[in-house]
Design brief:
This protein is mainly alpha-helical. The protein folds into four domains: 135 residues, 3-Layer(aba) Sandwich (Rossmann fold), CATH 3.40.50.620; 151 residues, Rossmann fold; 39 residues, no CATH class; 99 residues, Arc Repressor Mutant, subunit A (Orthogonal Bundle). 47% of the residues lie in helices and 11% in strands. It has 19 helices and twelve strands. The longest helix is centred in the C-terminal third of the chain and has 24 residues. The N and C termini lie far apart (76 Å). The model has no long low-confidence stretch (mean pLDDT 94). The chain binds one RNA strand of 75 nucleotides through helix 4, strand 7, helix 6, strand 12 and helix 11.
Length: 462
RNA sequence: GGCCCCAUCAUCUAAUGGUUAGGAUUCAUGGUUUUCAUCCAUGCCAUAGGAGUUCAAAUCUCCUUGGGGUCACCA
């Protein structure tokens, strides 16, 4: 059984890069009928926050990712870590180091001055004297001092390190006894049965350290997939400074979760020429072993295009329900089908859609000067008056096509072009150029409101 | 700086030794339309550079260059 996980540290909101690795882990677990678990990495007591963990859960909920089982909080697993630390100590695979922080910085400074790699020098590795007083020791793990360490990565392929280049006896427990990241990650992944780790490739250089822990504890290694980063426009790792990285900000901006997920799954992964993926298709097709090796740049244009696509293809019922979250309630409007049919073709996001609605439902308070100038040349007023007469004399006016027929009849009778009625009508009904077709607008407004708006415009503009 | 990773249009990507290097987004042009948008059509645009292997290289090897990541008692 495939078990994957998402293991964020709750230092803030869920960001877009995190959502991507979560999505990929989720998809791979689902495709294999496995499990996807969520673990909150809150071992650093000075930085964790409950609100942040809740924010992550909220974001998961919004996009519809479901984790299996209870959320695991590392802060609640101190006894487990303590047990394994003790085990390593007892087995002589880890030891107490009484070096003070000052001594450590001093060591680093001399190493830097000598242009050496900064590393712990192992001075307490085999210490059996009397420890110095007033020092709370840290626990260090005995890492191999030489030899090759190979990661058989599912994306990057064979990645090889030399122990002497990258390892030293790193700290697994702080002076206060709390365990550190590289230790708890390995312990938890192993204990939770995670056998496929899909995470950002910024963790690639941590992996050898975690492998040291696996080895020391006799745990079986998972399969690693290090997925390339998402970069900003200037090619750097996406960070909070790059604007919209908070997943929930995308909701506010009017993005649909399916668009965001579709966008993210296509970053570094593809299935031939396919651009549109439903959640079901993603779950059926996604495979981490054909993720690209190179980083991809985050590009909003494509996300906007996808979002527009998903809005156009959403049912009116769904859009109406969603619109409430953007402050517009059209569920009670009897012409909401006409309204949404006309508007969803033109909205790039839900916020835009929400903003368009009052521009149609509310009568214009003024008429745009430029539009008036353009539309009210010649006998526009007379045409509008004639159109009112035409509407009044027509009984069956419900569908957009009914109103369209009325317009057609008028232009035929008056022997004028469509623009002669279309443009002034547009200004009369909406107050400006732009917006959906007049037939749809009139169908939404209904005969009475349409006539009322035209008459008002005729009064004001003649 | 050490170590590691990466390199196809502006961007996301396809092509796993043989294609006029394909698709999508953006952009431009044209069409549709009463306007704007949508939609449709067309167009522009790429294998970082250099060696080598091979009948044949975007694809394999090496070098160069460029970019990124990481080097904590953070995660």
């Amino acid at each position: 059984m495939v078990v994957t996980r998402f293991a964020p540290s709750p230092t803030g909101y869920l960001h877009i890069g995190g959502l991507r690795t979560a999505l990929l882990s989720y998809l791979w677990a689902r495709r294999n009928g496995g499990k996807f678990v969520l673990r909150i990495e809150d071992t650093d007591k000075s930085r964790n926050s409950e609100a942040a963990a809740e924010a992550i859960v909220e974001a998961f909920k919004w996009v519809g990712l479901e984790h299996d089982g209870d959320i695991v909080y590392q802060s609640q697993r101190d006894e487990i870590y303590a047990k394994y630390i003790k085990q390593l100590l007892d087995e002589g695979k880890a030891y107490k180091c009484y070096m003070s922080k000052d001594e450590l910085t001093e060591l680093r400074e001399t190493q830097m001055a000598n242009k050496e790699r900064t590393r712990y020098d192992g001075r307490y590795r085999d210490f059996d004297g009397t420890p110095p007083e007033g020092i709370e020791p840290v626990i260090r793990i005995k890492a191999p001092l030489c030899g090759e360490i190979v990661i058989d990565d599912g994306i990057k392929g064979r990645v090889s390190f030399q122990a002497e280049d990258i390892l030293d006896d790193f700290i697994i427990a702080r002076g206060d006894g709390s365990p550190t990241y590289n230790f708890v990650v390995a312990v938890d992944d192993a204990l939770m049965g995670i056998n496929e780790v899909i995470r950002g490739d910024d963790h690639l250089s941590n992996t050898p350290k975690q492998m040291v822990v696996y080895e020391a504890l006799g745990f079986e290694l998972p399969k690693f997939y290090h997925v390339p980063m998402i970069h900003n426009a200037s090619g750097k790792k996406l960070s909070k400074r790059d604007g919209a990285t908070d997943v929930m900000a995308y909701k506010e901006m009017g993005y649909l979760p399916e668009a965001l997920l579709n966008f993210l799954v296509r970053l570094g992964w593809s299935n031939g020429d396919q651009e549109i993926f439903s959640m079901d298709e993603m779950m059926e097709l996604f495979d981490p072993s054909n993720i690209n090796k190179s980083a991809s740049i985050y590009n909003v244009d494509k996300l906007d295009w996808l979002n527009g696509h998903y809005i156009k293809n959403s049912s009116n019922a769904k859009l109406a329900a969603l619109l409430k979250e953007y402050g517009v309630d059209v569920e009670g409007h009897d012409k909401k089908e006409f309204l949404l049919d006309a508007l969803k073709e033109r909205a790039k996001n839900m916020k835009e859609l929400a903003e368009m609605i009052p521009t149609i439902l509310n009568a214009p308070e003024s008429y745009d000067e430029k539009a008036v100038k353009k539309a009210f040349k010649g006998d526009a007023i007379e045409v509008l008056k004639a159109f009112v007469a035409k509407l009044e004399s027509t009984t069956e006016l419900h569908l957009p096509s009914d109103f369209h027929a009325a317009m057609e009849a008028l232009v035929a009778e008056m022997e004028i072009g469509f623009g002669k009625i279309g443009m002034p009508l547009r200004v009369a009904l909406l107050g400006a150029m732009g917006g959906p077709g007049m037939d749809s607008v009139m169908a939404v407004l209904g005969k009475d409101e349409t006539i009322k708006r035209i008459n008002h415009a005729v009064d004001v503009l003649s």
